[in-house]
Amino acid sequence: MQSGTQSRSAVCSEKVISEVSGKRLLRRRVQKRADGAKCVTVDGRTDWDELCKQNTWLRTQSGLVVKPDQSIKRRKHLGLIQLNVDFDTAKLWIQEKLGSKVKVDGVEGTLKQFLIEPYLPHQENEESYLCIYCHTESHDAVLFHSKGGVDVGNVDEEADHLYVGLEEMPQQQTIQETLLKNVQNTKTQMLCSFIQSLIKCFRDLHFTYLELNPLVVTDSEIHILDVAAKVDSKAAPLCKELWDGIQFAPSLCRDLHPEELRIAQLAAGTPCSMNLTILNKAGRIWSLIAGGGTSLVMSDTAAELGVRDEVACYTQFSGRPSADQMYEFTKTLIDLMVEVPHPEGKTFILSSNVADMIMMIKLKVGPMQGLMRALQECKEKLKTHKISLLMRRATLATVPKGQIPSALTELGLPVHIFSIAVPMTHLIQCALGLRDVETGVDDTDKICQPMNQQAESHEVIAKNNLDEIFNGDTKVIVVGLMTQAVQAMLDFDFVCGRKTPSVAAIVNPGGSEDKEESFLWAEGQVNIQVYSSLETAMSNHTDATVVVNGAPGRDAYHCAMLAVKCRHIRCILMIAGHIPDRQTRTLVQMAHNNGVLIVGPCTPVHLMQVNFIKPGSFRCNKFGTIGGSLDDLVSLRLYRPGSVGVVTRSGGLSMELIIYIARNTDGLYQGVSLGGGKCTGSSFMDHLMSMQANPDVKILLLLGEFGGSEEYDICEALCSGKLSKPMVAFCIGECADMFKSEPGYFGHSGAGNDVALETAAAKNQALAEAGAVVPKTFDEIGEKLREVYASLIAKGQLVPKPEPPVPSIPANMKPRKGKK
């Protein structure tokens, strides 16, 4: 089972390090030289006299090399490198170039950082090319070409390749026979040892990409002339000492605003993710949004409506931000919002598709405490600048004006609260005054009315892997989740007709003692055992086949490794993020070898399973309020299976997809959110092929995104007939050019890496050409689902699922006030 390819989240977690840092690391770790690389950084803050005082070789060296150190490809072709010049020439060239504009791969940016190093006289035939990168979940790729330099060509085709297992160290004979066939015998042993050391360094320091070009190999020594490298920023806690002194390469484009840097530092080293990109301080639409997918859809929608300049910022938070972190984030946004007044005022959109903001404000729990503290402190300036609040909650329930939480009404600001059923198009129009918020934009009443009440029994001929794992008897062990998340899972169990809860045990890693905890169930309560050790829980509950892993920090990887080795565990749902890619790849490989399915990591909503028509259907990991309250679960008809199978990377957008399905078809059969990390335990194709083989799934729904190339595998499968069921597909992120800050992946030098193919627009076009039904916008997904569904009914290829009696919700399980 192959892991997924790069996504937007993956791109964010890989950080380009400066060439100076790369050379110093490699000299110390690979070449075992304690003297340090002769290489210095120069920027606008450099004191030239002090620089020469600390590096006397700058004036005595016979020749120098000077070039920008900003992850710019093909610097020689762009005229951005000086070779064999003296110090005065190098200094003058930098002074002329510093702050100047340059255009690389369609991105215009500013030159702001350079390096100076000694020039190495050598012959062209002494130049080689060497690269290591993460290839699959089980192997790294080592590429070597005996010809290096700027004209190396397409190394993917011309270089020799060696694929190395994650724990494997290739023997020198293997390296020589595979990579060094065209290298002089006098140099092979030295190169073999160097490559072995480089592989070890690549793993130990959690590099994701490491390219040396050119690498000058003489008869007696190896010289690294140019380094392009990325590291996995999620490994920072593990590599604190190993990365000592490391500097990341500055973006080609603008520097981070102080506020953007503050938010990045706020989340650094914590289990949460927080991002801020300032687009236009004069814009009228400001936002604080949980989940990157929803933020992208908002920007996509604004662009489609022709009001992209009104989007002031891109924001995203996920994980578990503390109240203090949310306070700082909100306060920063408010200060930015009022910096440039607008005569018509501005709108602050607050949205979370995972946890219901309104309920959290009422209960005064979680990060919303910090948000409300910031709003209360700044309410006078918000009034002065005519700021209104638009809040989009994570459920279908609306909030009448008389029931808005007092904490919000006491702000004295216009507050409008919408359900998650409100399309993003309507929300943007309300924010700009193009739609009257008072007339009501919430069309929740249109949701979930079955299009056809005909019933027909279906004989299940074959079940896919998930059907085998998740059935009416499935038992799970939940690790590291909050009480309300576990209660939400039990709520779902109940409306699906289970006689007993699916949760067999709860694990609180590092807890002080084992105990029992009570949860609401039917007319009473049920006690579930809580353990401090996953090993004990698995030993005591051998009937459990699934582990829902929400353990924080380093415990997440440790718990996953324990679970994957347990014989009776068949599936691990990984909520946890911030696991270094190398650890994820090790975990995925071991899971594959042991026959264990992994969904995730890096996703808040991993699996939405509505399994068969009989009582006992099961949807694992109803995390937070995805799927909504008990009333929402019933309204969306998630208590029985429909005909639509969903695969998405974005967990935060799962609720909108469920609504589209409920509104326009006979309902959801199964949905999987893969997670946003570079390495995931399963791929789009894994789950789509499973749904293709399942006769109960009639329609496939795919939500992709910009970045990576996994969607092209789906295009090939559609063209070949491997995927033959009707598919509605859409990739979010067509607005990505609004956020460009890098010239793209630097990839293999000269490899012809076409970043244009990774755009959402290119993928949507390719999917449409392959035969998928592709809507123009995210909001049109429901319309296209309805068209496909109606067409299948008309052709007699789909008979709507029968409607069983609607479950009644006991008073004991109605929405609870005050239970945290």
Describe the fold and architecture.
Keywords: ATP-binding, Cytoplasm, Lipid biosynthesis, Lipid metabolism, Nucleotide-binding, Phosphoprotein, Transferase. GO terms for molecular function: ATP binding; ATP citrate synthase activity. Residues 254-433 form the ATP-citrate synthase citrate-binding domain. This is ATP citrate synthase. The protein is of the alpha/beta class and 820 residues long. Strands 1, 8, 9, 10, 11, 12 and 13 form a 7-stranded antiparallel beta sheet that branches. Helix 23 links the parallel strand 28 and strand 29. The longest helix has 20 residues, at 185-204. The two termini are 39 Å apart. Mean pLDDT is 84; it is low at 1-11, 439-464, 603-627 and 742-754.
Outline:
Pfam families: Citrate_bind, Citrate_synth_N, CoA_binding, Ligase_CoA. This protein is an alpha/beta fold. Strands 1, 8, 9, 10, 11, 12 and 13 form a seven-stranded antiparallel sheet that branches. Strands 22-23-21-20-24-25-26 form a seven-stranded mixed sheet, sandwiched between helices.
Element layout with pairings:
Elements: H1 8-13, E1 14-16, H2 19-29, E2 40-43, H3 48-54, H4 57-60, E3 64-68, E4 82-85, H5 87-97, E5 101-104, E6 107-110, E7 113-118, E8 127-134, E9 139-145, H6 155-158, E10 160-165, H7 172-178, H8 185-204, E11 207-217, E12 222-224, E13 227-232, H9 258-267, E14 273-278, E15 285-290, H10 292-304, E16 313-318, H11 323-337, E17 346-352, H12 357-363, H13 368-377, H14 379-384, E18 387-392, H15 406-409, E19 415-418, H16 424-431, H17 465-469, E20 476-479, H18 483-495, E21 503-507, E22 515-521, E23 524-531, H19 534-540, E24 546-549, H20 555-564, E25 571-574, H21 581-594, E26 597-599, E27 607-609, H22 630-635, E28 644-648, H23 654-664, E29 668-673, H24 684-692, E30 699-705, H25 710-720, E31 727-732, H26 760-770, H27 781-794
Parallel strand pairs: 15-17, 17-18, 18-19, 20-21, 20-24, 21-23, 24-25, 25-26, 28-29, 28-30, 30-31
Antiparallel strand pairs: 1-13, 2-7, 3-4, 3-7, 5-6, 8-9, 8-11, 9-10, 11-12, 11-13, 14-16, 22-23, 27-29
